[in-house]
Amino acid sequence: MLSQDFNKKKIELFGLLRKERKLSGEVRRKIIELYGSRGEKAIEAVEQRRVRKQGRRWFVRGKSGEYEVVKNFCSCPDYVMNIATEKAKVDMCYHALAKEIAEAIGFYREEKDEKGESG
């Protein structure tokens, strides 16, 4: 179970992110402070435009493949082995975090789904 301090910092971080709508130095620092190496990887994924929205579905391309992210849940091994089991002291893998960051600042690739509709 995550601490109240973690949850408070997360709320502050995403409030600031939505307000600034960019990855400022302060936002980057707070992401890394809260999420560590997962934060660094998430920032990198956003900057490298590896986050995409296809219709209503979100995908993040990682090192070994592309993972679907639904809300804060991800299909990657890190999520299954460390986040879901609460071994990690954070609530998201870097793919889910990258999706949340990209969505908050509006910086992602948008593609039509198989029906030809975008999100």
Short description:
With 119 residues, the chain is an alpha+beta fold. Helices cover 49% and strands 16% of the residues.
Secondary structure elements and pairings:
Elements: H1 4-20, H2 25-35, H3 37-47, E1 51-54, E2 57-61, E3 66-70, E4 73-74, H4 77-83, H5 94-105, E5 109-111
Parallel strand pairs: 1-5
Antiparallel strand pairs: 1-2, 2-3, 3-4
Helix pairs in contact: 1-2, 2-3, 3-5
What does this structure look like?
The chain contains five helices and five strands; from the N terminus they run αααββββααβ. Helix 1 runs antiparallel to helix 2 (25-35). The chain starts with a helix and ends in an 8-residue tail after the last strand. Helices cover 49% and strands 16% of the residues. The chain has helices at 4-20, 25-35, 37-47, 77-83, 94-105; strands at residues 51-54, 57-61, 66-70, 73-74, 109-111. It has one domain (4-104).
Record keyword descriptors for this entry:
119 residues, alpha+beta, five-stranded mixed sheet, 5 helices, 5 strands
- Number of β-strand runs: 5
Number of domains: 1
C-alpha-based Rg, rounded: 14 Å
* Estimated share of beta-strand residues: 15-25%
Class derived from helix and strand content: alpha+beta
Please report the number of helical segments.
5
Low-confidence segments, ≥5 residues, pLDDT <50? none
Q: What order do the helices and strands follow?
A: HHHEEEEHHE
Mean pLDDT: 93
